[in-house]
Specification:
heterodimer, A: 246 residues, alpha/beta, five-stranded parallel beta sheet, four-stranded antiparallel beta sheet, 9 strands, globular, B: 419 residues, alpha+beta, eleven-stranded mixed beta sheet, two-stranded antiparallel ribbon, 17 strands, 53% helix
Chain lengths: 246, 419
């Protein structure tokens, strides 16, 4: 993979801009996160590195609008999501974010297709985009095929029957469906062995650039760094880590 | 909608616990509605036992006691009515008919009732139905007996069979009127009333089997044979009670008062309907207790459902985190969990109703035959529908408990599950 793709002309200068942000968990032994400035240019592939407990999950929660900072702005695609109501933030996340977890991404009792289609129930804009191309099921199947899931697995079984690697591909398809602007991946490869890690990242990269999406991936594995446009350590952008634990 | 489909699939994924929860609710519903059916069935059966009789006359006692021993063969008379008093009442101009009843003996646990042929003519049950003979005819000879359907069925009697009446009311008696056996002259058709469990003989026969008796035992050394007794004066000296029919219902209360004030002997006259009301007042407490118990069972079932949902909540935090990550609002998760409780409750109620009617259809003939209880198979009454509706609402509200907890968890967890 070519590591440099930033010099493509971007429609927006950045998809995320955080400024003067301060967040403290309510009543949780004072864990706090403060970010003076953080900017994510459009279409960038950012690797965020930090040991566990460094506030990665808190940071992602803030970016995705699940947590709200006590102070500061979080601009996502030009909207200050910190200023939105909780319901509007949930709707905003549904519309603009595709999220992949470390593990347990799928609803185990749902079919593969249903799992992929799930975000469309909450994101009318993404649904419209998908339906413009044909049916939602077709698009889900197309994504799954492109992500290398065998055809018989696409139609068939419950998500619980898939291997971990297959589940991560389904999760990627769910994140990508309807072309959200931002893909957030929280250690998506840590449950995979090295070969499958590489294969999964190849697929994720090609699909995100195909869709023109920006990718934030969180990992503690610095060996992945070479493949990203930018690598950032969380402690580089945060002012305060764990107040009490440090 | 995919979210709802996934919620149902989630439930199906836990089908064993879900099924048990639904069954618990269904059984509680069967109990609740079943108690109501039995209650109305029992009331109806009691109310249907006697109709067409305007007054029941007996020795001075509580009206309930008089009703129970004269009609339902429950309990015993405290005293008798003299034959003279009975004749006086019969002679009243407003009285259309009066049927004497004489109780006190039994046959294999079935009561023996001394009466007249008029009994078969005037006794009415289920509003208008009269007694009909399944076989044979009313008693004709002094030692003829007419048995109820249950007596015939239980003891395998056919017309012409000989039977021996026992003194007293125990099912096993050591004192038998074996010197004067009876012959079955007729078998009554099934009525679903205590008549089925009664052996009917003539008043004279009751007198005849007791001619050589005194104070509940045979007079030693004095034995009158069956043939000798036919020649004796068998006019009864006393009866236990009498059913009275009037020419006009308007006279009912006046005659009742006059009988109650009868000078020659302390008597009671009761209206069967009024006495039944008194009975309902008495058993009403038991009925309420039963209803309360079944309501508790319903509450227990709903509590079980809440427990079931609550215990699965921890393992479903990932599910909720995933839903949150794709944009579901905490409120959506609240609604999903309440919907789950609602689906379980409604399925339980529906299954309960189905089970109840299957049970009613299967058991109704048996219950009618064995207990003379005619269980109504009809649509649920408005009151029952209201209680079903309140159970459905209560189920959804009970779902609020786990739903609120899930709401709090999903707000706190966000997309990361700390387990």
């Amino acid at each position: 993979m070519v590591a440099i793709s930033v010099d493509q002309p971007a429609p927006r200068s950045h998809v995320i801009a955080v400024s003067d942000l301060s967040f403290t968990w309510p009543g949780r032994n004072g864990f706090a996160l403060a970010i003076e400035r953080f900017v994510l240019p459009a279409r960038e592939r950012l690797l965020l590195i930090g040991p566990s407990g460094s506030g990665k999950s808190t940071f992602l929660g803030l970016i995705c609008g699940i947590l709200t900072p006590q102070v500061g702005r979080i601009d996502v695609l030009g909207t200050d999501i910190a200023g939105l109501s909780a319901a509007a933030r949930d709707a905003y996340r549904a519309e603009h974010f595709g999220i992949i977890f470390q593990m347990f991404n799928l609803l185990p009792y749902g079919t593969v297709i249903d799992n992929v289609l799930l975000p469309l129930s909450f994101a009318p804009e993404r649904r419209r985009r998908v339906i413009a191309k044909g049916s939602a099921e077709q698009e889900a199947a197309r994504l799954l095929r492109r992500l290398g899931l065998a055809a018989e697995l696409v139609r068939g079984p419950l998500a619980a029957k898939l291997s971990v690697g297959q589940q991560q591909r389904v999760a990627a398809a769910r994140a990508l469906i309807g072309a959200p602007e931002l893909i957030v991946a929280d250690e998506p490869t840590s449950a995979l062995d090295r070969d499958r890690q590489t294969a999964f990242l190849d697929l994720l990269f090609s699909e995100t650039s195909e869709a023109g999406a920006t990718l934030i991936m969180v990992s503690h594995d610095e060996s992945l760094a070479a493949r990203f446009d930018r690598v950032m350590r969380l402690d580089e952008i945060t002012l305060a880590g764990q107040k009490d634990n440090s | 909608m995919i979210v709802l489909r996934l919620a149902l699939q989630s439930l199906r994924n836990r089908w064993v616990t879900a099924l048990l929860t639904v069954l618990a609710i269904a059984v509680s519903i069967v109990l609740l509605l079943g108690v109501e059916k039995i209650r109305t069935g029992a009331r109806q059966s009691f109310a249907d036992t006697i109709s067409g009789t305007d007054l029941i006359v007996g020795a001075r006692s509580g009206s309930l006691n008089l009703l129970l021993y004269s009609v339902f063969r429950i309990g015993n008379a405290t005293n008798n009515v003299s034959w003279q008093s009975y004749q006086d009442i019969l002679a009243r101009p407003e009285v259309a008919w009066a049927v004497p009843l004489s109780l006190g003996d039994s046959h294999h646990g079935f009561r023996v009732l001394g009466t007249t042929g008029d009994y078969f003519k005037h006794y009415r049950f289920r509003q208008t139905q009269g007694l009909t003979f399944g076989a044979g005819a009313p008693f004709d000879d002094l030692f003829d007996a007419v048995v109820g359907a249950d007596v015939a069925a239980a003891l395998g009697y056919r017309v012409g069979d000989p039977i021996v009446v026992s003194h007293g009311l125990g099912s096993v008696s050591f004192i038998e009127h074996d010197d004067k056996p009876f012959r079955v002259s007729g078998i009554l058709a099934k009525t679903g009333t205590p008549v089925d469990r009664t052996v009917h003989v003539s008043l004279e026969a009751i007198e005849a089997i007791h001619v050589d008796w005194q104070s509940g035992g045979r007079i030693p050394g004095q034995s009158v044979s069956a043939d000798e007794v036919r020649g004796m004066d068998l006019k009864p000296k006393a009866i236990t009670a009498a059913l009275v029919g009037l020419k006009s219902k308007l006279a009912t209360f006046r005659l009742q008062r006059e009988i109650n004030e009868y000078r020659a002997e302390p008597l009671s006259a009761i209206l069967p309907g009024a006495a039944l009301q008194e009975l309902w007042g008495l058993v009403g407490i038991a009925e309420t207790a039963l209803t309360v118990v079944s309501a508790m069972v319903v509450a227990t079932a709903l509590l079980g459902m809440v427990t079931m949902i609550l215990t699965t909540l921890n393992e479903r935090r990932r599910e909720m985190a995933i839903l949150r990550s794709v944009g579901a609002r905490p409120r959506t998760i609240l609604a999903l969990l309440m919907a789950e409780a609602g689906v379980l409750t409604l399925t339980g109620i529906a299954l309960g109703i189905v089970l109840l009617y299957i049970g009613l259809l299967a058991l109704q003939p048996y219950v009618d035959r064995s207990y003379g209880l005619n269980l109504p198979i009809d649509a649920p009454k408005p009151a029952e529908l209201v209680s079903l509706l309140s159970i459905a609402v209560a189920g959804c509200l009970a779902g609020l408990l786990p739903a609120l907890r899930a709401y709090r968890l999903s707000v706190a967890d966000g997309m990361t599950v700390r387990t």
